[in-house]
Amino acid sequence: MVADARAFAAAGVEIVGDALARSPEPRVCFATGETPKPLYAALVAAQANGTIDLKRIRAWLLDEYFPMTASNPRSFRAFMHAHLFDPIGLAAGRVDSLDGSAGDPDAECARYEASISGAGGFDLCFLGIGLNGHIAFNESGSGAATRARRVVLSERTRRANAHEFPSLDAVPREALTVGVGTILERSRSIVLMARGSNKAEVLARTLFEAETDALPASHLQGFRGTFTVLADEAAAALIPNL
Ligand code: F6R
């Protein structure tokens, strides 16, 4: 557990630094959203002052709205370029993401799975968590073996993300996402990030309740790699004995 956003970001930078120390070209999967913003700002600062060389990473994204063009400023792809990839000067060829404008979304999901497995999977995968326990856009009902696919977003998820759009109605109703199985089987190391008191209950349930498709994040209990929970005090409030 870390005290605040600043410590959260510093701990995340250290984790990325470790990955860079272990590999000349670490493969990292990134989450979008409010939670990782302080981390991405700190990574940009670390790159600017020369502490780390993020240009060596290869990057993937967890998910994308559907339909959505990459050039739309509300796309997850645009979010990552704005908050991390462009400020660190990451070459475009080092980034892959699900194409929310694909004419054949099933083929696009298959392509993405092949991109991830062909590269050897993720050395490091950053996840946020939804209020309903989603990871990436794997909503309630998503099993531990699910793969990249087209999904319907829950009303709760659309409401949580509505602040990025002119109205709730404008929030896409579907998305393309890596599966829970993609995350569990293709990651060597997972960092589950949570900030703020509104995530306290879902984080505690994720870690301590029985694993269930109803709470997809609980499938992380079955992950066999290195698992880190990066939570601030407010999000970790219901975790005993910290
Ligand atoms: C984003 C993603 C989602 C978010 C989750 C939490 O790429 O896959 O699972 O991580 O919805 O979002 P925030 O951080 O905005 O609370």
- Strands of the widest sheet, in order across it, are 4-2-1-5-8-9
Bound compounds, please? fructose -6-phosphate
Order of helices and strands: HEHEEHEHEEHEHEHE
What helical percentage do the residues reach?
25-40%
Mean pLDDT equals: 97
Termini separation comes to: 7 Å
The biggest beta sheet reads:
6 strands, parallel
Residue fraction in strands: 15-25%
Q: Radius of gyration, Cα only, in angstroms?
A: 17 Å
Structural class: alpha/beta
Outline type:
globular
How would you characterize this protein structure?
The protein is α/β, with parallel strands linked by helices. 33% of the residues lie in helices and 16% in strands. The chain contains seven helices and nine strands; from the N terminus they run H-E-H-E-E-H-E-H-E-E-H-E-H-E-H-E. The protein has helices at 5-22, 37-48, 76-88, 105-119, 155-161, 180-186, 200-208; strands at 27-30, 58-61, 63-66, 95-96, 124-127, 149-152, 174-177, 189-194, 226-231. The strands form two sheets. It has a six-stranded parallel β-sheet with strand order 4-2-1-5-8-9, with helices on both faces. Strands 3-7-6 form a three-stranded antiparallel β-sheet. The termini are close together. The model has no long low-confidence stretch (mean pLDDT 97). The site of fructose -6-phosphate (F6R) has 15 residues, from loops. Fructose -6-phosphate (F6R) is lined by residues 31-35, 62-63, 76, 128-130, 134-137.
